[in-house]
């Protein structure tokens, strides 16, 4: 792999789940039209309080356009919690701060730019817990991310990024 040609662009758009995927489709189509298509496109979002139908349509539109989705239901902070403990019981969004803060050196702040640094050493635990949560839902034969609460696919993006990093180190 030519690392000089690897580009990771993170866009915080503030859009809802479906609008975010629609926006990404537009970016992907422009890249395709310019002759420099993306090797992969990931959309990262959480369920929040968006309607179930939007969430379902976002997954379908991403799939139709060959995009991958890294999601969290109900909140992205689930991924952070999995760095410390396994969770398979739904939590209201408002409870994540209280669950996370005792594990951090200060109160959890969603805008904390150093969160990766706080969590990096515990990434293997998060990956293990996320895979376990994925198995939990598979054993229940749910296969419906908008109804699986809590659930996440963020670990799949992290594994993909780790693979890219390892390829570049070779």
Beta fraction: 5-15%
Helix content: 40-55%
Major β-sheet annotation: 3 strands, mixed
Structural domain tally: 1
Mean pLDDT: 88
* N-to-C span: 9 Å
How do the helices and strands follow one another from N- to C-terminus?
HEHEHHHHEH
Rg, rounded, reads 17 Å
* Structure classification: mainly alpha
Quaternary structure state of the chains depicted: single chain
- How many helices does DSSP assign? 7
Low-pLDDT sequence parts: none
Please state how the strands of the largest beta sheet are arranged side by side: 1-2-3
In total, the number of strands is 3
What's the overall geometry?
A: globular
Question: What's the topology here?
Answer:
Layout: H1 17-33, E1 42-46, H2 52-64, E2 68-73, H3 77-81, H4 96-100, H5 115-119, H6 123-139, E3 151-152, H7 154-169
Parallel strand pairs: 1-2
Antiparallel strand pairs: 2-3
């Amino acid at each position: 792999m030519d690392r000089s040609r690897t580009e990771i662009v993170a866009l915080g758009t503030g859009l809802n789940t479906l609008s975010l995927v629609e926006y990404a489709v537009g970016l992907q189509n422009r890249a395709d039209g310019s002759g420099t298509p993306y090797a992969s496109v990931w959309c990262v979002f959480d369920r929040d309080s968006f309607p179930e139908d939007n969430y379902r349509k976002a997954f379908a539109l991403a799939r139709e356009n060959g995009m991958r989705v890294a999601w969290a239901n109900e909140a992205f902070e689930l991924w952070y919690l999995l760095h410390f403990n396994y969770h398979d019981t739904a939590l209201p969004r408002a409870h994540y701060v209280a669950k996370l803060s005792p594990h951090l050196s200060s109160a959890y702040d969603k805008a904390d730019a150093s969160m990766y640094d706080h969590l990096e050493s515990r990434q293997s635990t998060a990956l293990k817990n996320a895979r376990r949560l994925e198995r939990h839902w598979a054993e229940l034969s749910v296969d419906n991310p908008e109804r699986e609460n809590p659930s996440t696919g963020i670990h799949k993006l992290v594994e993909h990024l780790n693979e890219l990093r390892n390829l570049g180190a070779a």
